[in-house]
Amino acid sequence: MIDPERGLFSPSVRIEMEGFRRFDLTWSAPFSIKYLLWDARMRILCNNVSNVGLKRMSEVEEAPQLRRDQVRERILDAAERMFASQSFAAVSIRNVTAEAGVNLAAVNYYFGSKAGLLKAVFLRRATDLNRERLGMLQALIARHGPEGPLPLEGVLEALLAPPVRWLFQPERGLAVFIQFLARCQMEDEPELKALFYQDVEHLRRFIPALKRALPDAPEPELYWSMHFALGAMHYTFTHLQRLNTISRGACDISRADEVISRMIAFAKAGFLAAGRGTSA
Hints:
Low-confidence stretches: 1-32, 49-66
Strand content: under 5%
């Protein structure tokens, strides 16, 4: 600033720039062209610094959203592992947050309660699993057209193969969810039972395809057959290793394709019997 009486710069010029500490510039030299040039340069510098500051503020505003997503996923991953290996009652919110390395209040913030966390763990993977199943079913229908017979093996593959394949994919973290599903069946907790029993709409969508595969089978028989086929699948989740013990290693349980093909063959025989010998 210029002193109107002395024609000089005032004793102290203060400049504050966002993101930088304040500093003072002091002059006692007469006003001249060089100070006008200096002033112009400083205006350009301050404008550039202001733009940088705004950019930094924008980045800071975006970062919390990324951190929130990461925190939520870490909680879900930790809860999934713990619920898969321990009972629902044995796992506390404090256990989960300690495993995830996040604040204790984070579970309530993101999920509302322990039951809300359990539901989120279930739905996160179940949605993907069911999407994969229905994607296979839709692809099968697209290949054979909207009407007419469908191959029974193809329908059963869409129903049974994806979760069994997940069991053999620990590197993707999917096997943990299959273990979690198995825990849902063994636990006597109302929250777990409610989750497992209510998630059935995707299964109903297989009935029209099964009708096309077995047009003479009564609809109740299709439901019974699906029930027993899913029972075989879930028993495989929990006791596949037992087969190795019973057979003294004669049965190869190390390959997903082997397990899937045998499960489909078994289920197909059951559906055909329920359909009173109707050929697929």
